[in-house]
């Protein structure tokens, strides 16, 4: 979070706003807690006829719930980080920038400041991208988030359902969260389908031994609503998850799908980071397949510079020896100042800034 956000939280209004922003997360958590009660207590325990079957149902239920909650938690709690000092424009340069008499002068000041930074993205007028609020040169694919009040690396979008920016550090967790939420909803819907059909066939009251709306009858209603809610969430998750799988496979963020990034060489290009489906997938999920389905950090790169499709074309034209995908990734996206020199922000929200992360294919829980 940026300094502005910290300042805003100190005022009563700012505090209310930060509490208000957690309401969607609390809503989702309440729905999950209720679904747990309805599924485990009302469906499996009170309604158990087939003991072995129920054990397997509960086992798969808890596995899908654990993966779902784990990825949801990591999406929420992973910090957007802080852009290191070398990207920050000194005050005297900022003053010169604001007092510049023409866009050309501004462009010259910015290009001069960023000459040793690994930036290839440009504005419409060909200038290095600059954030007026954070007073920094924006790294490639980074954007300013007005909700987080800071510039965010490889920003995808700000998601109110996780009260966090979906960005370089948590994009893998976000995609897994959507995937596991879909698996959870489909599993719950599939295993409650039988009771749902029975409800309409036999009737809520007749199913109950006493023939009245006591706890057994209410249990039926819990299962009925559980089926409805699981189907409702599954329908909305299918489209969202499918869209993000598509974005992963073409190596594009949601923001880039609306507005193509502009490159120093080549201009606007929506496919500028598209390296091929498998390489695109590995850029988000990492090179070690053992971590692909777990919400642990394994994305490639440092979030400041990214190999481009034109880098790839150049590399394949000049490389005579056969190199591994990781070697090719390392060879791309290098500039005068290597991205490996960038200091990386800390992973957890609670850990603050200035931490370091290991590079390629590192995994953190
Ligand atoms: Zn900013
Ligand atoms: Zn944000």
TrEMBL record:
Per the UniProt record, which EC number(s) apply here? 2.3.1.225
Location, primary (coarse class):
membrane
* Keyword field: Acyltransferase, Membrane, Transferase, Transmembrane, Transmembrane helix
Q: Where are the transmembrane segments?
A: 20-39, 51-73, 173-190, 223-249
Domain of life, source organism: Eukaryota
| Listed Pfam families | DHHC
Its top-level enzyme class, in one word, is: transferase
Which residues fall in a compositionally biased region of kind Basic residues?
356-365
What are the boundaries of the region Disordered? Answer: 307-326, 331-365
**UniProt feature, compositional bias: Low complexity:** 313-324
* Domain text: The DHHC domain is required for palmitoyltransferase activity.
Q: What protein family does this chain belong to?
A: Belongs to the DHHC palmitoyltransferase family.
Name it. Palmitoyltransferase
Organism of origin: Drosophila kikkawai (Fruit fly)
Q: Which gene encodes it?
A: LOC108082530
């Amino acid at each position: 979070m940026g300094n502005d956000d910290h300042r805003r939280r100190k005022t009563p209004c700012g505090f209310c706003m930060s509490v208000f922003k957690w309401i969607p997360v609390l809503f989702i958590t309440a729905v999950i807690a209720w679904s747990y009660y309805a599924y485990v207590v009302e469906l499996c325990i009170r309604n158990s006829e087939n003991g072995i079957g129920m054990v397997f149902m509960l086992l798969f239920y808890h596995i899908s719930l654990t993966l779902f909650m784990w990825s949801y938690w990591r999406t929420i709690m992973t910090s957007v980080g802080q852009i290191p000092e070398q990207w920050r424009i000194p005050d005297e340069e900022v003053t010169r920038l604001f007092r510049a008499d023409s866009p050309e002068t501004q462009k010259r000041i910015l290009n001069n400041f960023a000459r040793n930074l690994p930036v290839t993205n440009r504005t419409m007028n060909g200038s290095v991208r600059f954030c007026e609020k954070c007073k920094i040169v924006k790294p490639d694919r980074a954007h300013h988030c007005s909700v987080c009040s800071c510039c965010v690396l490889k920003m995808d979008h700000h998601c109110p359902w996780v009260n966090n920016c979906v960005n370089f550090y948590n994009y893998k967790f976000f995609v897994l969260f959507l995937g596991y939420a879909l698996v959870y909803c489909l599993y719950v819907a599939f295993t409650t389908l039988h009771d749902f059909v029975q409800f309409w066939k036999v009737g809520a009251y007749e199913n109950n031994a006493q023939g009245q709306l006591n706890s057994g009858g209410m249990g039926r209603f819990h299962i009925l609503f559980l089926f409805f809610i699981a189907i409702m969430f599954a329908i909305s998750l299918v489209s969202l998850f499918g869209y993000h799988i598509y974005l992963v496979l073409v190596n594009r963020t949601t923001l880039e799908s609306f507005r193509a990034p502009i490159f120093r060489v080549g201009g606007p290009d929506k496919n500028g980071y598209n390296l091929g489906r498998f390489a695109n997938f590995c850029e988000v999920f990492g090179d070690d397949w053992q971590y692909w389905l777990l919400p642990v950090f394994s994305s490639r790169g440092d979030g400041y510079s990214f190999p481009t499709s034109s880098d790839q074309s150049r590399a394949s034209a000049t490389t005579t020896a056969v190199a591994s995908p990781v070697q090719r990734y390392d060879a791309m996206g290098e500039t005068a100042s290597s991205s490996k020199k960038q200091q990386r922000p800390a992973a957890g929200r609670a850990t603050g800034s200035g931490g370091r992360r290991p590079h390629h294919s590192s995994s953190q829980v």
